[in-house]
Amino acid sequence: MQYRIGILGGSFDPIHLAHLEAARIACDKLDLDFVYLVPAGNPYHRDEVVASIQARLAMCELAVQGHHWLKVSKVDIDRMGNTYTIDTISDLASEFARDFPNDSVEWFLILGADAYKNFPQWKQPEEIAKNVRIVVVSRPGEDHQQFDRFPCYFIDVPGWEISSTQIRIAAKNNETIDELVPAIVAEYIKTNKLYTD
Ligand code: ATP
Ligand code: MG
């Protein structure tokens, strides 16, 4: 069998409804079998990750419950050091070859427009682009540009005004986050007092 699998990496600090929508729309448009959510171990481009690895992973695992098109991969958490997407892809490919020795796979790397904007500065972008098809989802306030060297399949969505940053601030100020994350994730954030000082 030839699989079509999406990869959506992120800090997921916390995972929110726009992440899940991006995965679902990419799945629909590109007829993917499923999408891996890949929480970053140590995202090299971020100054700070607020919640622990365990909490970010737990929230991803709660968020995928009941969604057969979503799986969580721990490859970036299990690897030591900074998270680079070239390593994510290589580790996922090794896992796939081990688990499905008789099958093949086409990988689709799903990025928000803000992430794609920086793609040429990532580690080994040419190597990444050789191994995956790049899928870009529009994001409010972000222009979409195409890089000739790294062409992408662009999905223009109506736009979700949601970011993890905004959710961390709302949680800290005791404002509701119920419209921004799955109910079970909102519950986890409250119970574990994430993002409050
Ligand atoms: P933060 O505010 O902490 O940076 P974030 O909301 O940007 O969090 P990330 O974990 O940084 O979430 O993003 C993971 C991936 O999801 C990135 O490719 C990002 O572009 C994409 N993404 C996040 N939010 C949206 C959104 N509202 N619309 C489209 N893509 C999004
Ligand atoms: Mg971000």
Task: Please give a quick description of this structure.
It is built from 8 helices and 6 strands. The chain has 197 residues and is α/β, with parallel strands linked by helices.
Description:
The chain is α/β, with parallel strands linked by helices. Strands 3-2-1-4-5-6 form a six-stranded parallel β-sheet, sandwiched between helices. The protein has a single domain (2-160), classed as HUPs (Rossmann fold, 3-Layer(aba) Sandwich). It is built from eight helices and six strands. It has helices spanning 17-30, 53-63, 75-78, 85-99, 113-117, 125-131, 164-172, 183-191, and strands at 2-10, 34-39, 70-72, 104-112, 132-137, 152-155. Strand 1 (2-10), helix 1 (17-30) and strand 2 form a beta-alpha-beta unit. 38% of the residues lie in helices and 19% in strands. Helix 2 packs antiparallel against helix 8. The mean pLDDT is 94. It binds adenosine-5'-triphosphate and magnesium ion. Adenosine-5'-triphosphate (ATP) binds at residues 10-13, 18-19, 22, 111-112, 114-115, 137, 139, 160, 162-165. Residues 10-13, 18-19, 22, 111-112, 114-115, 137, 139, 160, 162-165 line the site of adenosine-5'-triphosphate.
Which helices and strands occur, and which strands form pairs?
Blueprint: E1 2-10, H1 17-30, E2 34-39, H2 53-63, E3 70-72, H3 75-78, H4 85-99, E4 104-112, H5 113-117, H6 125-131, E5 132-137, E6 152-155, H7 164-172, H8 183-191
Helix pairs in contact: 2-8
The structure holds adenosine-5'-triphosphate and magnesium ion.
